[in-house]
Amino acid sequence: MKSSRIEELKRQRQTEIQPKKSQLPYLFFPVLAFFALYYYFFNTDKTYSIIWIVGILIGITMQRSRFCFVASFRDPIMIGNTSLFRAVIIGLIIATVGFGIFQYKAVGNIPNYSIDDIPGQIFPVGLNTIIGALLFGIGMVIAGGCASGTLIRIGEGHIMQVVVLLGFVIGTTLGAGHFGFWEKLFIFSSKTIYMPQYMGFLPAVTVQLAVLGILYLLAGWYDKKNNIMKL
Q: What's the CA gap between 120 and 99, in Å, rounded?
C-alpha cells in the first residue's frame, strides 16, 4: 500500500475517533460526599473515620489494579495469565504472617486454649465448604465478577452489575435466614481444623508460607509457558 494511502487512512481514522469528554465535572459530588461522610464519622466516632479512609484507599487500589478473584482463577485457564492469581497468593502470604503474629500474641502463651479464644473467625471445614465454594464459583463466573469486582464495576458505571449486586443482597438475606438449618445439617457436625493446635504457631506459619511460596513459583512458571499475551 502506498504511503499516501496510509496517511489518508490515518487521517480518516483520526476524524472518526471522538475526543473523550472530561469526567472532572462528575467528580464534584463524590468528593463532596466523601468529605461530608468523613466529617460525620469524625464527629461521631473517630474509629469510623479511619475505617472510612482505609476503605476508600482499598477501593482505589482494587480499581486501579483490576483486582478480581474471578479473574485470578479464570485468566490462568483462558489466557494463561497468572498475575492476579499471584497477587492473591501475595495477599495470603501477608495475611498468614499478620494473623499468625496477632493470634500468637493472644493465645500463644496459653497452654490449653480453645478455638473460641483465638481472634478472628475460624469455622468448621466439611461438605458445607465444598458445596458453598462450588455454588459461589459457578455464580461468580455467570455474573462475571466476585463481590469486589462487582462493586468496582458499579463504581465505574456498569449498570448491569447492579443486577448482580441485587442478587448478592437477596442471596445473603436468604442465607442468613436459613443459616440455622444449614448449621445443624452440616456445619455443627464438621471438624474445625486449626493448624497451630497440632504443630505450634511457628511450624504452622512456616508450612503455610512454604506451600504458598511454591504455588507462587509454579504460577510464574505457568505464566511464562502459557500466557498468550506474551507469546
A: 8
